[in-house]
Amino acid sequence: MTHPIIDNAQVMSNGQITLPKDIRSQLRLVPGDRVTLICEEDRVILMNSAVYAMQRLQSDMAGETEKGGIRSDDDVMNWVKDVRAEGESP
Length: 90
What we know:
Elements: H1 21-26, E1 35-40, E2 43-48, H2 49-61, H3 64-67, H4 73-88
Antiparallel strand pairs: 1-2
């Protein structure tokens, strides 16, 4: 288990803060990346937006493959073959 990074940042007059380097590194953020802020009562969770979007997609899609009858790698391969064959049809 990793230890939490605890640091402080000052809120500037325009509302901006600078994320400490250790936190940027932990979240794998580079200049130009976007972050998602989730406010829960008296705390804020800051996440790399790409990671947050993937987690939401995975959560939203949970169980959908089973609903579509896809239960194994072979089912996936057969579905891909069927889709490709449909694309080749005139």
